Structures are given as C-alpha cells and as structure tokens.
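Lay summary. Proteins are chains of building blocks that fold into shapes, and those shapes determine what they do. In this project we predict the shape from the chain. Here is one chain we studied, written as its sequence of building blocks.
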Amino acid sequence: MCKAGSPPSHRQRRVINPKMNATHPTIPKHRTLHHDKCPRQITPASSDTSSRDYAQTNSTRDRALYPVTGRLSNVLDDYVIFPKVLGKGHYGVVRECVCRITRQIYACKSIDKSKIRRLDHLQREVRLLSEINHHGIMKMVDCYEDSDFVHIVTEKCTGGELFDKIIENTTGTGCYSEKSAACIIKSLLQAVAYLHENDIVHRDIKPENILFESSHGDAIKLIDFGLSRRHKKNDASMSNPVGTAYYMSPELLKGSYTKSADIWAVGIVAYILLCGYPPFNGDTDPIIFDNIENGHLEFPNRAWSTKSSMAKDFIKCLLRRDPHIRFTAKEALLHPWILNLGQRHETARRRSSRCSVHSNVH
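And here is the predicted shape, written in a compact code that computers can read:
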C-alpha cells in the first residue's frame, strides 16, 4: 500500500461543481491510497498415488494457484455474465450477471489478480464480506476464483454513486436539504455501527463507496471493503495510514488510530452533503493532509447561512480532533439532528411509497 504521504499520481480530477469559482472549494473524485480463462481441473499424475498424499498435494497446489479462496471455481457454471460494463476500476470491472438457477440478477465484480500486490488483503476482504449481513451494506452472494481473476457476486444497486448525486445537486449555495442529508447519514451510521459492533473498521468511507439501491429512493448501501480489517477494543492502535485523502482523520495521518477514524469520515461526508465541498480542501494530497492536521473547521456563510445550528453541531461532534471525545456511531445516531430530521424524512418517504402503491392498485 502507498503511504498517505506519497506524492499523488497523475489522474483526472472530477469536480463536484465545475461552475463554482475559486472562492468556493471543490472536491475531485480521489483515488484510494493503497499499499498495496479457467484452467483445466488438476488430476492425479498417476494411479499409484495414495489418496491422502494426493489430497495434501492438491490442497497445497490449490492454495498456491488460488490464494484468495483456496480452490478453483468457474463463475460461468452458475452465472451468465453480460458483456456490458457497469463500472470500471484500477483492479477490474463490474458487470451484470444472472443466476442460472434462480434467474435473479446480481452484479459481478471481476478482479484481476495480476494487478493486486497483496492478495492476502483481497482474501481478507472476501472473508469479511462473507460474514457481514446488514441491510445498509452491500451483500456478497458468491465468490469464485480462477487462475486470473477473483469474481465477487453481490446484490445489484441501480441508483448510482452518492458522489454523482452530489455533483447533480450542488449549487453555489449548497447541496442536499437537511432532511435528505440526515436520512442518508442515518443509514450510513447504522451500517458503521453494525461494523464497529462486530469489530470491523471500514477505513475508506466516502461518497464513491456509497450506492443508492434504486433511482427512486434514498436507501443506500456501503460498499468496497478492500481496506477493511478487524480491530477489537483492546487491540493496539492501527498505524498504516490508508484511505482517501479528504476523508482521513488527523490521528490516521499521524499513524495511530482506531475505529473512530470511520466516524471522522462520516462527518466529512455529512459536511459535503450539505454544502457540496469538503471542509479541508487542497489541490494535492500533501496540501489536503496539511489542512486536515492544521486547519480549523469552518462553515462559510454562502453555503451555510441557511443551515441549522443543529446540523453544524452534529458535524462538529463527528469532526472532533480528539478521537477519545469524538462521537461513536451509536452516539451520533442519538443526536437530535438525526433523530428529528432523519426519522421525519424516512417516515414521509414510507408514507409516500404506501400512497403510490395504493394508487397503483386502484
């Protein structure tokens, strides 16, 4: 994995609102900072090989050839994968697929193993995904591995990235309404609370890793557990500064952090949802890091004059520099801004949905 202090690579920087001038900071779509043909089935070399020796040899060979799952499996045996690419990243592509038996439609993320420096990290991601079961987190359905790729089959979301929705909604005076933002953040906090209760830290929470279930609602799914790991209460602090620049906490940049770094990232997402740009900005990663470590949290009048003091207080509670007094996910869910606006928006959405169904029936 690349250290947080590494110089940024040359990359196209997507802007939330290209029309905003220099007095209004913008946020590009940052890459995450990392360290980071099915063969024929193997058969016994000769008939006099003992079954026990062969099993041991075959197991060792499988672990070497298929280090992520430990065995060869062909995703095409169970799924039809369509050629259209839904998404493309540095390590692979996402395509739509359909289960041959149930005809259920899913998404298949095919990861090129030759591009992964640390396959044990991919192994850890697959293991964590297999253990996670929460309505606000993308669910893994199946996982396959051949000589070249790891194919992760997940439920399919059709609403797009939160990042793109922010681009569409941002103006010179703000982005999402407080009700909508509170509803999204509430769902995100519920997912994070579940992870933390199960001793899992995400380490890369950002709008690009939050998908809408559909284009017609606010239900979201947290995705991409490539940097996630287990971290128990009494474990030593994590030291590897990984993540995405804008969302990295001060203590993470210093190389000693806990699950509380996820809460800082949620606070940054909440800030961006309400105004359209990050609180600690910069044209390069080193400048962003310097602003995170030395900057002060501010709420410029143009985008924040119409926002409630309750919203600002909520963000302050999540962006406390001392992680020991920073809110936990459970504490954040009890903040009045979430309890009042988030619940009210969710109730109104459900009522609207029920009315729509009733109207269609008649």
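What the prediction tells us: Confidence is low (pLDDT under 50) at residues 1-24, 35-49.
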